[in-house]
Write a structure and sequence with these properties.
With 473 residues, the protein is of the alpha/beta class. It has two domains: 6-266, Aconitase, domain 3 (2-Layer Sandwich), CATH 3.30.499.10; 289-472, 2-Layer Sandwich (Aconitase, domain 3), CATH 3.30.499. Helices cover 35% and strands 16% of the residues. The chain has 17 helices and 19 strands. A five-stranded parallel beta sheet has the order 5-4-3-6-7, sandwiched between helices. The radius of gyration is 21 Å and the shape is globular. Iron/sulfur cluster is lined by residues 63-64, 108, 129, 131, 347-348, 408, 411-412, 429-430.
Length: 473
């Protein structure tokens, strides 16, 4: 008998009860916390005299406010220092494992979970952060939660939730040269809209998704929320298990791996599972996608013209007009040749070793354009070390990139890494909202990591496929 989708199965296996509100009480397998959204929740717990129910299922890191240059304490920014100190106190009192920068394991919350192997198929994972959907790449059911829910999870290990519908997004075929996971998700959001996923969880499937490495799958799941979906996931397969086999959790404990694997396999969506909606996208047709506007849904293929707001559905016209004014672009132009001032390679979407490796191949033997300030911010200290060991840091720094310490950095500019004035930034992050990178006049163009470094080298938005040809000629 079909038990349904991965979503149905993980949901059922974590259901404690149905609450009087009609919501489901779900048990949480992993609660990730960071410095920005947890302090208030810990405060609420203290007010009620409650303890953290499952410190062993809770894991903390510091990412948003952490400086990426000088990390000596106290931090130069007193607000950042205060947040850090508060997190330190909270985790110490509760006995929660904390990957602070002295451990060598610190990093963006959505990078460290998978790399340590605590992100696993069939787990329910929550975090007070909208990009928690990233962990769905492993077949986990992972979603961002708000402050009062963080409190609930800290106090009870459970969360009250409404069940969502499931939309299967099948990406068929093979991605072309220079086209990456990031382009797939930007294309999905462009087609379905930033609100298109409201009420849904996205299951990403199809040949093009299956052939992605785990890093690529994470980039896609990461941006589910930008498409309005509460969560996104990929069914676990051999690639997933292979990744996990090599993590801290399992490398020294192969028995544990063998014990858990049947469960992981059992949560895969059944062949005959029913979906509330199915969307099919032809992966063969895609090209690198860049945004022209101020939402992640305002994207186009690098060779395509920027749309005329008048040609868009009525509801989208006004925001498109305002976005074009802010970005100073006109309908009919392509984004190719758009001048940039800053290049940011980082964020929980694209700052893993595989991302840096691909980008370094483009950078090798080239120089950052003299008018561009370019930075690479590894997603975690482990990524940073590995990249340094294999010589990627040297490739980037010799080309003129600034090599930083791990953190969220210029993805949202909660530390010193910010755009100035109306600077335009080629960014491998996930949000291009006005003001997102620290300056209200700043302009963000989202793209894949190789496109970011191509833009850094040329000083303008560039089709990386042209640069690659030069490189291999
Ligand atoms: C600070 C945090 C609450 C926020 C989020 O939830 O996503 C941040 O990570 C972001 O990307 O905007
Ligand atoms: S890297 Fe950006 S998107 Fe990811 S958690 Fe940090 S601020 Fe949020």
């Amino acid at each position: 008998m079909s038990e349904g989708t991965l979503y149905d199965k993980v949901w059922d296996r974590h259901t404690v009860t149905t609450l009087p509100t009609g919501q489901t009480q779900l048990f949480v397998g992993l609660h990730l916390i960071h410095e920005v959204t947890s302090p208030q929740a810990f405060g609420m717990l203290r007010e009620r005299g409650l303890d953290v129910a499952y410190p062993e299922l809770t894991h903390a890191t510091v990412d948003h406010i952490v400086p990426t240059a000088d990390q000596s304490r106290p931090y130069g920014d007193s607000a950042a220092e205060e947040m850090m100190a508060e997190l330190e106190e909270n985790v110490r009192d509760a006995g929660i494992e904390f990957d602070d920068p002295t451990t060598g394991d610190q990093g963006i919350v959505h990078v460290i979970g998978p790399e340590q192997g605590i992100t696993q198929p069939g787990k329910t994972i929550v975090c007070g952060d909208s990009h928690t959907s990233t962990h769905g790449a492993f077949g986990a059911l992972a979603f961002g939660i708000g402050t009062s829910q963080i409190r609930d999870v800290l106090a009870t290990g459970c969360i009250a939730m409404e069940k969502q519908k499931v939309r299967k997004i099948e990406v068929t075929g093979e991605l072309g040269d220079g086209v990456e996971a990031k382009d797939v998700i930007l294309e999905i959001i462009r087609r379905l809209g930033t609100e298109g996923g409201v009420g849904y969880v996205y299951e990403y499937a199809g040949e093009a998704i299956e052939s992605l490495d785990m890093e690529g799958r994470m980039s896609i799941c990461n941006m589910s929320i930008e498409g309005g979906a509460r969560a996104g996931y990929v069914n676990p397969d051999e690639k997933t298990y292979e990744w996990l086999r090599n993590t801290d959790e399992f490398a020294d404990d192969p028995e544990k791996f063998e014990r858990l694997k049947p469960y992981w396999e059992s949560v895969r969506s059944d062949e005959d599972a029913e979906y509330d909606d199915v969307v099919v996208i032809d992966g063969n047709e895609l090209e690198p996608v860049v945004t022209w506007g101020t939402t992640p849904g305002q994207g186009i293929g690098i060779s395509e013209p920027i749309p005329d707001p008048d040609d868009l559905p009525k509801a989208k016209q006004e925001t498109a007009r305002r976005a074009q004014e802010h970005m100073r672009v006109s309908p009919g132009e392509t984004m190719e040749g758009y001048k940039i001032d800053v290049a940011f390679l980082g964020s929980c979407t694209n700052s893993r070793l595989a991302d840096l490796r691909r980008a370094a191949k483009i950078v090798e033997g080239r120089q950052v354009h003299p008018d561009v300030r370019a930075m690479v911010v590894p997603g975690s200290q482990r990524v940073q070390r590995a990249a340094e060991e294999e010589g990627l840091k040297d490739i980037f720094t010799e080309a003129g990139f600034d090599w930083r310490n791990a953190g969220c950095s210029m993805c949202l500019g909660m530390n010193e890494d910010q755009l100035q004035g109306d600077e335009a930034c080629a960014s491998s992050s996930n949000r291009n909202f006005i003001g997102r990178q620290g300056s209200k006049d700043g302009r963000t163009i989202l793209m894949n990591p190789r496109m970011v470094v191509a833009a850094a080298i040329k000083g303008e938005v560039t089709d990386v496929r042209e640069l690659r040809e030069v490189a291999t000629a």
